[in-house]
Design goal:
Layout: H1 3-14, E1 18-25, E2 34-40, H2 60-72, E3 76-82, H3 84-90, H4 92-108, E4 114-119, E5 131-134, H5 137-140, H6 142-165, H7 171-174, H8 180-189, H9 202-214
Parallel strand pairs: 1-4, 4-5
Antiparallel strand pairs: 1-2, 2-3
Helix pairs in contact: 2-6, 3-4, 8-9
Length: about 220
């Protein structure tokens, strides 16, 4: 079954007037926001978007190309970010749901009988719109794949901007993920305001606290 056929079957099953694909990027990194996208594709655009797939299966160059193609094809979408500090405060799952709710609410405002198609095995909590969760939805559903591409491109751009604001961590390269170079940078420089402190390994935090004590400096 193609991704277009999957979406058409979902729309028939739920008698949906429109499908809103919802996916996120950035649940695992040590820094930066979690980013969600809600995307509606015009039915006429489906035949033009056969190459749109799970963002993890695409190169950065291909994602950027498809992002522009989605805009040219009339994809309607909204992107929402939840920052690192709030992720630390409410945890990553709740932060992801919050970003998804915000993104979906804006897109759904003028749609009749929408169905939200959410990537993964969790339905969005505290959510009033009709929804279904689809495991591996970003590779099975075209509208979810489109949301996956847009969320990833938007978050990568955000992280490249952070690299300029907070140089020395390598955000433009690893996008906040826990590479060895990123771990070394945190251990040497300490976390910046865009780091999720609850995600940083204990040995690094303990090392920073120990060094702060030696310098008679209070570490938060």
């Amino acid at each position: 079954m193609t991704r277009q056929e999957f979406d058409e079957e979902l729309a028939r099953e739920y008698s949906a007037g429109s499908l809103i694909g919802i996916d996120e990027a950035g649940r695992g990194p040590l820094a930066g926001p979690v980013t969600a996208c809600a995307c509606v594709l015009p039915k006429t655009a489906y035949p033009l978007l056969a190459e749109v797939n799970d963002s993890k299966q695409l190169s950065p160059k291909k994602r950027e190309k498809l992002y522009e193609l989605l805009k040219q094809c009339g994809a309607r979408y909204s992107v929402a970010f939840v920052a690192a500090a709030e992720i630390d405060r409410i945890n990553i799952l709740q932060a992801t749901f919050k970003a998804m709710r915000e993104a979906a609410a804006e897109v759904a405002a003028s749609l009749a009988s929408p169905l939200c198609v959410v990537d993964g095995n969790h339905k969005i909590r505290d959510f009033s719109l009709p929804q279904t969760a689809v495991v591996k939805g970003d590779s099975r559903s075209l509208c979810v794949a489109a949301a996956s591409v847009i969320a990833k491109v938007e978050r990568d751009r955000y992280m490249r901007a952070l690299d300029v604001k907070y140089p020395g961590y390598g955000f433009a390269g690893h996008k906040g993920y826990g590479t060895a170079a990123h771990m070394r940078a945190i251990a040497e420089k300490g976390p910046c305001p865009e780091h999720r402190t609850t995600f940083i390994p204990d040995d690094i935090i303990n090392g920073l606290k120990s060094r702060a004590r030696q310098l008679d400096f209070k570490f938060h």
